[in-house]
Structure formats: structure tokens, C-alpha cells
Design brief:
Radius of gyration of chain B: 13 Å
Protein name (chain A): Cytoplasmic tRNA 2-thiolation protein 2
Distance between the termini of chain B: 40 Å
Radius of gyration of chain A: 25 Å
Structural class of chain A: alpha/beta
Low-confidence stretches of chain B: none
Order of helices and strands of chain B: EEHEEEEE
Function (chain A): Plays a central role in 2-thiolation of mcm(5)S(2)U at tRNA wobble positions of tRNA(Lys), tRNA(Glu) and tRNA(Gln). May act by forming a heterodimer with CTU1/ATPBD3 that ligates sulfur from thiocarboxylated URM1 onto the uridine of tRNAs at wobble position.
CATH class of chain B: Alpha Beta
Pathway (chain A): tRNA modification; 5-methoxycarbonylmethyl-2-thiouridine-tRNA biosynthesis
Strand content of chain A: 5-15%
Largest sheet of chain B: 5 strands, mixed
Helix content of chain B: 10-25%
CATH superfamily of the largest domain in chain A: HUPs
Strand order of the largest sheet of chain B: 2-1-7-5-6
Mean pLDDT of chain B: 85
InterPro entries (chain A): CTU2, Rossmann-like_a/b/a_fold
Oligomer: heterodimer
CATH superfamily of chain B: Beta-grasp domain
Strand order of the largest sheet of chain A: 5-4-3-8-10-9
Family (chain A): Belongs to the CTU2/NCS2 family.
Low-confidence stretches of chain A: 15-23, 152-163, 174-226, 437-462
């Protein structure tokens, strides 16, 4: 620790000493021969060749060190066309084309999600962007897919994002193949392969590899998983636009887009038997995300939201291999080695700096970074020290309640004397409601759901009371951060169908559980008692 | 009396949105080459090329934090940043690393 500090100090003072003689004459700190073209950190100047070597090595070292991706495994790369994901894609290509010992050995596939509808692009603009993206993807020779946010998997059946099977928001366990049952129905085309993978994974690792190897031979891959893009129907575009119009703040829009995008990516990965999903989050972006998520009330999930691997979806693991690169490194690499990128405007292009919490944090970090060049790395290193508690990843978490939106274990099931309940109480007080109201409301909605279950039909929506109930029910299924986002939705009517049906399903199940609770032997103590007597 | 400076300017990563969506600009500055550094260039860009929202590109007398500047494909931090003296036929690249440009 002390030594690292000393080294840091030394490096810094060296940098300060060197500063006056800055200029093109400065030599690369690595080869000390060629002149430098880029400063990565204070005092670390690299020439073009050494920079390339450093960049490529870092990618392979990252994957090698973490030992997460097994040879022959199917890995889906999520590409937005932006600098970080394009650069990640280029690194994978580079890694796969290498000579034997250092070669990456997984089987990649590509997916791009077209979010034009949310970004208010015209059909023509969207077509143009998709064509650009497609030309980039086509060159790779990997199987690829371009999906509109509204629509999924055209070549199998048209399932829209509004029509995703509700298993997307369920946690699918790796070890219990049965749980994938309803999911199988939705993707019958891949049924055989999928069970194969699931069963294999409960077995030994070598088994996985052979199975996967078989899979990749069996499948006529490029033909099967390369879907050409077709523009979604005007109706579904309209539905998506309505959903985003019903959101009051830009912050909530960003969060909602992120949620839907993740669902769609995970669904695509599952449907085609990918077990890893690579995201191109850079270190700069993660530092911004880290602070943003704290402000959004998602502090409990920081390790999952910004870590190298994220197991919240169970069978599909998210991986962030670009998390040690700063955007500066990435942009320079792309510029120097002509990595093609496709620029797409974000939700908040050309906004004011205070448009959303995301925007504000980004400006804040960048401003600090320009005065204190180690800002990003400091924030990033802090995030690196956080770990997901073992209880979250352990076997007992299978039954734990998870947020309907982000699938993180609920942080709202806490005791009465907690910050969460304090917030709730002060919220009710500030709305000038009496304190016992929440309980009354809960009772009422239980009664309501009982009725619903009796006739096996969802209660008629439309009356204001049932809407309020639906909102209450939904909120109950969300983590704190997602609750805050949902509060900015003016109406729940436009939420995708799979979210609403799963919400109904869960509410009914809870109500039923409550009803039969007294007949259940759920406490270990009870069980022991019964066994003894 | 030195000749005027002609430059190749490039905007990418979303920065081009502020310049009418045009990425590459070939410009000739009306300054004398011996008295023209990047600081002058930024002022000139603000007055002549920038089409909207100048605060999204320039803040203070430098570029907005998060926008990278490359002089002849090298980091401007190696060249003295704002004090770099422009040469004829230099190429200057601005890359926005900000989310959505």
C-alpha cells in the first residue's frame, strides 16, 4: 500500500518535472525510441506501436485473469456502434485471428439494438443507421442480428418487446432445468439445444465444452442466427413512443430504456443459447454510472451494476471486458487504427447539462477529470472493491424475491427501523396522508386480488381504484431504485405486456401463499418439532 | 508577413452535430501563422463554424471537458494544449467522448 503510494508520488513528481519539456520530442515511456503520440495517465506517454500492444494485451489479460469465459462457449457481443463497443468488437476479432497460444477461443455472435423510435429518429434515419451498422457487422463473418427495440427475432416468430415471454423477468436457475419450461415454449426452435446446455451445465465443465462444441457443429450458424433487419410495424413503434411519452423525467427515461434494452439483450442471448453477454462499458462510463446509481437509490446493487461479471439473470452472465479502458484510450485507438464506429444520438443529445442525473454526473466527472486526472480511476477503483454478497449468488437466492425490472434481489424487504421505511413514512407524511393508510391500501389490494383469482380473470382495468391498486402492486415488486423510476410514469398502461402479466402473476402467487400459510411447514423449527413427535 | 494558415478540421463522436452534421472542414484562417495558436482557433471556430449551443463545445477558453483534441493524430497534451502554434496544413481532430455527443 505504502509502496504503491510512493510509486504514485514518484511518478507524479516525475511528470511535473517533465512537463516543461512537453512536445512531440517526448519519447514513448515503454520503448524509449519512438516519439509519443498519446498520454494515457500523468506522465505515461506512449507511441503508436506500444499503445496498440498495451491495448490489445489489456483485453486478453482481462479475460484471461477472470477465467470466466470457457473455450467453445457462445458469447454474445452487444454492439451499440459507439466507440467502446466497437472497440470491444475489434478486440474480439483481433483475439480470434491470433496464433494458437494466445488465441481467444470462444464463439462470438453479434447483436445490435436499434433504438431509433425512442430517439425520435425518422424511418429514413433509422434505415440509414441500420444499413451502416449492418455493413460493419457483415464484414466480421460472425453471426449477427439487428433488432429494433420494438421487435425481437423476426426470423423465428415476431415477438415484440411488448411481447417478450415473462420469463425474461424471472430468474432462471442454472441447475434446475425445469424452471426453463415456460420459456422453452416461447422459443421452441431452440428447445433441444437449450436443454442440452442447461443439463450440461449442472454436469462437469468438460461436458459443457463438448456439448457446446457439438452445438456449434450441429447448427448451421450463419444461416440460423443472422437475421436481416426489418423495420417494426408502425403500431409497435407507436406503443413504444407512448410508453416513453408517459415518462415525466429524462432520468427515468434513461433508466427505463436501460431496463428494456437489458431485457431484450438477455432474451436474445437466451433464445439463441448464448451463456455470456459482453457489454462495452468503459471505465469512464462506469465511473459515471457508479455515481449516478448512487444518486438514483441503487446503491445496494452497485457491485452488480458496475462489476466485471453480473450474474443477476442466472443463466446468462453479463461481462464487461472494457471496464479497464478509459474513453480517451478507446477513442484514440479507434482513431489511430481506423475502427469503424456508428454514431447514434442518445436520448439526450444536445441537452442542457442538467437534463438528467446521468447528464449531470457525466459533466461533473469530466470537469473534475480535467483538473484532477485521476478522478475516473479513483471512482472506478472504488467500485472495483465492492463485491456481491455471497448470499446473493448462493443457492438460497434462487427463491429470493427479485425486482421485476432489474432482477436485483429486493432491497425493500427490510425491518421497520430502516432508512427505507423512514423514507416511506416521510413520503406519506409529506403527502398529508395518515400513517395507517399504506396498510389499509395493502389490505384492500389483497381483497382485490382474491376476487381476481376467484374468477381467474384479471380485474377490469380502467376504473381508477384498480389502477391505483395495480400501481401499488407493481411498486411492491420493485427495488427502491426502480420504484423511484416508476413514480415518474404517468400511467402503467403502456408498460410492455410481459412486465404486467408477470406482475399479476407474482401478486396472485403472494396472495395465495398468504392464504395457505397456516397449512405450510416452512419453519425449520416446526419441521424438527413435527419430526420429533 | 507570413501566409495565412490552412487547416483540416475534423469533428467526430457526436461533436459534428454542433456543426451541421458535417465531419470534415477544410478552413483557411485569416491569421498570420506566427501568431496563431489553438486558443485563437477555438475562438475562430466559435465565431465562424459553430452552429448552435456553443457551451456544448467550448467552456471558458478551452474545449468542454470530455472532448479530446488531436493535433496531427497526436494527443494535444503532448503539444502544449492551448499554446500550440498552428502550422500550415495541420490537421486538428475533435472527438467527443460524451454520451450521445
Amino acid at each position: 500500500m505504502c509502496r504503491a503510494q510512493e510509486e504514485e508520488d514518484e511518478r507524479y513528481s516525475e511528470a511535473v518535472r517533465r512537463r516543461p519539456e512537453l512536445g512531440l520530442e517526448q519519447k514513448c515511456m515503454k520503448c524509449k525510441e519512438r516519439s509519443a503520440v498519446l498520454i494515457i495517465r500523468i506522465g505515461d506517454a506512449f507511441c503508436k506501436d506500444c499503445f496498440k500492444e498495451y491495448f490489445v494485451h489489456k483485453f486478453r489479460a482481462m479475460l484471461g485473469k477472470k477465467r470466466l469465459i470457457y473455450p467453445g462457449e457462445k458469447v454474445l457481443l452487444a454492439l451499440s456502434g459507439g466507440p467502446a463497443s466497437s472497440s470491444m468488437f475489434q478486440q474480439v476479432q483481433e483475439g480470434l485471428s491470433r496464433d494458437a497460444p494466445k488465441k481467444l477461443r470462444f464463439v462470438p455472435g453479434l447483436v445490435h439494438i436499434d433504438e431509433g423510435a425512442v430517439r425520435r429518429q425518422s424511418l429514413k434515419e433509422r434505415e440509414k443507421m441500420v444499413a451502416e451498422m449492418e455493413s460493419v457487422l457483415k464484414m466480421s463473418g460472425f453471426p449477427y442480428q439487428i433488432i429494433a427495440l420494438e421487435e425481437v427475432g423476426r426470423y423465428r416468430a415476431v415477438i415484440q418487446v411488448f411481447n417478450l415471454p415473462s420469463s425474461v423477468v424471472q430468474w432462471v436457475s442454472k441447475d434446475i432445468p425445469d424452471m426453463a419450461d415456460d420459456y422453452k415454449a416461447a422459443v421452441d426452435g431452440f428447445l433441444g439445444h437449450h436443454t442440452g446446455v442447461e443439463n450440461a451445465e449442472s454436469g462437469s465443465r468438460t461436458c459443457v465444452q463438448t456439448k457446446l462444441a457439438e452445438l456449434s457443429i450441429e447448427e448451421p450458424e450463419p444461416a440460423a442466427s443472422t437475421g436481416t433487419f426489418c423495420l417494426p410495424s408502425a403500431q409497435s413503434t407507436q406503443a413504444l413512443k407512448q410508453l416513453f411519452d408517459s415518462v415525466r423525467s429524462l432520468t427515468a427515461k434513461e433508466e427505463l430504456l436501460h431496463t428494456l434494452r437489458s431485457h431484450l439483450l438477455v432474451h436474445t442471448a437466451r433464445a439463441q443459447g448464448y451463456s455470456k453477454l459482453m457489454l462495452g462499458d468503459s471505465c469512464t462510463r462506469l465511473a459515471v454510472k457508479f455515481l449516478t446509481n448512487i444518486s438514483l437509490g441503487r446503491g445496494a446493487f452497485l457491485a452488480m451494476d458496475t462489476g466485471f461479471s453480473d450474474r443477476r439473470y442466472g443463466d446468462v452472465v453479463l461481462v464487461r471486458p472494457m471496464r479497464e479502458y478509459s474513453l480517451k484510450e478507446i477513442s484514440f485507438y479507434n482513431q489511430m487504427f481506423l475502427v469503424p464506429t456508428v454514431f447514434s444520438p442518445a436520448l439526450n443529445s444536445k441537452p442542457s447539462e442538467k437534463g438528467s442525473i446521468h447528464q449531470l454526473t457525466e459533466t461533473f466527472i469530466n470537469k473534475l477529470q480535467s483538473d484532477f486526472p485521476s478522478t475516473v480511476s479513483t471512482v472506478y477503483r472504488t467500485s472495483e472493491k465492492l463485491n456481491v454478497a455471497s448470499s446473493v449468488e448462493g443457492p438460497e437466492s434462487v427463491s429470493a424475491a427479485r425486482c421485476l425490472f432489474c432482477l436485483c434481489p429486493l432491497d425493500t424487504r427490510v425491518e421497520k427501523a430502516s432508512a427505507f421505511h423512514a423514507t416511506l413514512i416521510s413520503e406519506h407524511l409529506s403527502q398529508r396522508k395518515s400513517l395507517d393508510l399504506p396498510e389499509a391500501a395493502v389490505k384492500k389490494c389483497c381483497a382485490e386480488s382474491e376476487e381476481r383469482r376467484c374468477c381467474k380473470k384479471p380485474a377490469a382495468r380502467g376504473s381508477t381504484t384498480s389502477r391505483a391498486d395495480e400501481r401499488l402492486n407493481l411498486l411492491d415488486l420493485l427495488c427502491y431504485g426502480c420504484r423511484v423510476t416508476t413514480k415518474d410514469l404517468t400511467t402503467l398502461d403502456h408498460l410492455p405486456h410481459y412486465v404486467r402479466s408477470e406482475a399479476d402473476h407474482r401478486t396472485h402467487r403472494t396472495a395465495m401463499k398468504k392464504e395457505i400459510q397456516e397449512f405450510l411447514l416452512h419453519e425449520n423449527a416446526d419441521l424438527e418439532y413435527v419430526l420429533k413427535t | 508577413m507570413a501566409a495565412s494558415v490552412s487547416l483540416q478540421l475534423e469533428f467526430s463522436g457526436g461533436a459534428e452535430l454542433l456543426f451541421g452534421g458535417v465531419k470534415k472542414h477544410h478552413v483557411t484562417l485569416p491569421f498570420q501563422s506566427d501568431a496563431c495558436d489553438i486558443r485563437h482557433l477555438l475562438v475562430w471556430i466559435k465565431q465562424n463554424l459553430l452552429q448552435e449551443r456553443p457551451e456544448l463545445f467550448i467552456q471558458g477558453d478551452s474545449v468542454r471537458p470530455g472532448i479530446l483534441v488531436l493535433i496531427n493524430d497526436a494527443d494535444w497534451e503532448l503539444m502544449g494544449e492551448l499554446t500550440y502554434k498552428l502550422q500550415d496544413e495541420d490537421s486538428i481532430t475533435f472527438i467527443s467522448t460524451l454520451h450521445g455527443g
